[in-house]
Every structure is written in structure tokens, then in C-alpha cells.
Write a structure and sequence with these properties.
mainly alpha, 2 domains, globular, 2 strands
Length: 179
Amino acid sequence: VLARMIEEMRTRALANDIEAAAQRLGRTPYEIITIASLIEKEVKIAEERALVSRVIHNRLELDMELQIDAALYYGAAEGVDFATLKQADSPYNLYRVKGLPPTPIANPGEAALIAAMNPADDPADDDERCTARTKKEKQQPCRLLFYVLSDAEGRHAFSTTYRLHEKNVEAARIAGILP
């Protein structure tokens, strides 16, 4: 009985946290849960959850496509290749649709919910991901906007510019991580 009471208190506290975070981040609680579901499916490395959260929040603020592979595969038939899925007319194809998918794509765990509510800070201007920006790019705040799988354990390389992202994609291809 005591364990059930403690779990109920934790659930209520987390629900209150979601409400407060949603308000602070300019989102609804449902959107926070949806973001957490994307993090749950997309991230294997615990330290990267808040970074992916930051990328998602930044891309939403800038009205960019989220381009999250995990959403692309949600509800897809087994064995359908990535290139075909990227062309699909689906509300879960976040390569073609801006914003969040219409529903969560998974049941997010507590760690993913915490990351969705507490995105990492963007890099400081003296961070190497920011100093490499062009003069024009430096007119905008330095923001994490891209990530790509970078090793077989599930780590990602994060970047602030498309140019750096393309270098990270090429490095992943050379390493055999991406086709």
C-alpha cells in the first residue's frame, strides 16, 4: 500500500511539473508529452536527451521541420525503406510536415519527460560549434538545430549550422553508420 501511495505522489508531482514546464516553454502539456515520446524513441544515450529536446524546441520555435526518423517509422509497415518513408504523405512524416506529430509515438519514460521539460542550453558563443559560423550566421543566436547518428552505440553529433551538419552526416557515412 505504501509503495502505491508513493508512486501516486510521484505521478501527481510529475503531472504538476509538466503543467508548469508547458507554460514556461509556451507549449501545452500534450505537446510536452509528444516531445517526450519523440525523445524516448530517438535517443539511446541518457546524456543526449536534453540536447535532442533543445533541438526539437529550437526547430519548433523557428517553424522548421523536425525531421525525426523515429516518427517517420511510427505506424509504418515492417521493412519499408527510409527513402520510401521520407516521401510518404503522413502526419508522422516530420520531413514533410512542420510541427509535432498529431499524437505521441511512444509511451515516454520519466527521463524523456524530464528532458522534454528541461531542454539543454544552447551552446555559448565561444563554443566551437558557434565560432565556426559564418558572419551572416552569427547575426542570429547560436542554436542547436541538427543532430545525426555518429556511432554504433547510438551517440549523435550535434550542430548549429546546416554546413556543419552535412560534415557530420558525411563522417557518419564514412564510418558506416549511415548508408
